[in-house]
Q: What sequence folds into this?
């Protein structure tokens, strides 16, 4: 249908964007990126196409180029929450942790009820050595009675790093209860329950 729309209606930025999305969903990243490029040649400041191309570039292994597109999408449409989210993901996976935290904070600001924003912020703040900030976000998630074991695992790590050992034990215990196969959570719990002798 996308091909027919292009055949009868001619090239148009939105049609090319949709065609690119179809190729993306079919797993053909090269063709998807070609469609996004064509869309942007016709309409260079098309936030949706920059966003879509950014995801395709990230998936294709070009994170630096993806970051450029996410930044442009956010510049063109300052309310584009998901551009902030993907910017955070890309920064995180390229080791730019402070920028990842800023991007996820931007995402949370635009989407204040987002659980995934709090999760990623907890993860990033732990990675950059700010466990108190991590706790703020992880406690919000734990307060929602979540059944996600990884949240309690991260929460246990954050409690441990601020020397709240009993809270860390409780969090790791909950993580193991929710996912008995999690070796990291089990090991962390065992270390706290059976510390080495001095």
A:
């Amino acid at each position: 249908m996308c091909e027919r729309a292009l055949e009868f209606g001619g090239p148009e930025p939105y049609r090319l964007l949709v065609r690119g999305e179809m190729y993306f969903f079919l797993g053909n990243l090269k063709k998807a990126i070609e469609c996004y490029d064509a869309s942007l040649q016709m309409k260079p400041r098309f936030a949706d196409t920059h966003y879509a191309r950014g995801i395709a570039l990230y998936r294709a292994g070009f994170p630096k180029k993806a970051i450029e597109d996410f930044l442009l999408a956010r510049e063109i449409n300052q309310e584009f929450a998901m551009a902030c989210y993907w910017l955070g993901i890309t920064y995180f996976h390229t080791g730019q942790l402070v920028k990842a935290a800023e991007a996820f904070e931007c995402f949370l600001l635009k989407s204040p009820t987002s659980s995934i924003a709090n999760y990623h912020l907890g993860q990033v703040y732990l990675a950059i050595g700010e466990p108190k900030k991590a706790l703020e976000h992880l406690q919000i998630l734990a307060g929602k009675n979540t059944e996600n074991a990884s949240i309690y695992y991260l929460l246990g790590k954050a409690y441990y790093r601020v020397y709240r050992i009993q809270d860390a034990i409780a969090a790791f215990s909950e993580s193991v209860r929710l996912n008995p196969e999690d070796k990291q959570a089990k090991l962390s719990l065992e270390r706290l329950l059976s510390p080495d002798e001095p």
